[in-house]
Amino acid sequence: xxxxxxxxxxxxxxxAESKVDSSRKLRVAIIGCGWxxxxxxxxxxxxxxxxxxxxxDLIPGKAAAFFAKYGVEGVKTDYANDEELIADKSLNLDAVxxxxxxxxxxxxxxxALDAGLNVLLEKPFTVTLDxxxxxxxxxxxxxxxxxxxxxPRLDANMQKIKEIVQSGVLGDIYYIQTGGGRRRGxxxxxxxxxxxxxxxxxxxxxxxxxxxxxxxxxxxxxxxxLTVTGYKSAFFGKxxxxxxxxxxxxxxxxxxxxxxxxxxxxxxxxxxxxLDFRIAWAMxxxxxxxxxxxxxxxGLRIPSTECWxxxxxGPMKIYHEVxxxxxxxxxxxxxxxxxLFDLKIRSFLxxxxxxxxxxxxxxxxxxxxxIIDGIAKSAxxxxxxxxxIPEI
Length: 392
Ligand SMILES: NC(=O)c1ccc[n+]([C@@H]2O[C@H](COP(=O)([O-])OP(=O)(O)OC[C@H]3O[C@@H](n4cnc5c(N)ncnc54)[C@H](O)[C@@H]3O)[C@@H](O)[C@H]2O)c1
Known about the structure:
The chain is α/β, with parallel strands linked by helices. Helix content is 30%, strand content 21%. Nicotinamide-adenine-dinucleotide is lined by residues 31-37, 56-59, 62, 81-82, 99-102, 104, 108, 122-123, 149, 151, 190, 193, 207.
């Protein structure tokens, strides 16, 4: 099967003119100093060619406390929001990590790109397809690198899935089942930014659904999505007796819950491929099933993980036929000896330094976002919708 991922899509990053003088350190800022920013800073600190010079958060004092916690001194943090930081030309920034909650992905990315900065944007790309399109228009205007934070792509097991599909051993792919979930796993470790509509905009669908979609879409070369029938629900998140919440916060969190905790969809992709998808932050089951990729010559089973943790849940298996005999080939789990976050930060920095293609380009993730957007829209109107992607 041909890898379409680099063909036909709006691949602006190929034109990035971001080459940086390699003799100096890259000057980086962190926008949004919450939970995931901790992983970004640890990985930046492990790089020899980076200087973290600034950070911003909407909550007064949060950025300063964040850098103090990680023992990073001399970082400017007296900004009320991303725009103030980006406007501070004295910082001479090369790049920003955008670690804000989902609803603030698009505005922050557009501000940064329009100011000529390279961007590492956390997943999901955006909340809506229209926002993703606006970010890509800013990317086109700026010619800078923007990479989306899908670190599982750097896992050797995920890369093996793509290698298997691209090798042709499965033949032509016609059906994929993917997704994943948790029995009780609505994320509220640091408050409610994941579950309130005004900050998150998407629940399980965007938070972990985007990973499951990327795993298979990247493997098959990101064909264009055509139509989607979607469903979403929130039976657990809105329940004041939901045992996954802290006992003293159940009533408050249930009231604030404004997104989905389960989503399912049936998606038609270009090339006659059917994608069957389900994702759960909470459900009365251990797993909604393994990921399976069915092809004309072979089928691949990818064991699911307990929750979406960015790798495979055990050895993968190819079901095929050799000389008239039905056989199974086991693909052992590959052990990673480098952290995925370190690889994510390094691959972004290399793209910035060398002015090369973003490791996870928007041109691919646009289709991921289009599917998420289609599921949300179809769930709202209760019927199949056509996916229409505006001109960038
Ligand atoms: N790649 C991963 O493994 C991974 C893991 C967890 C979360 N995430 C993603 O990271 C994002 C953030 O998640 P989190 O758990 O860190 O959330 P969080 O709520 O802990 O932190 C987000 C912070 O951004 C700040 N913020 C929002 N808008 C801002 C703005 N315009 N300017 C400055 N600061 C702003 C908020 O005040 C908040 O402190 C989410 O989109 C999430 O999906 C990715």
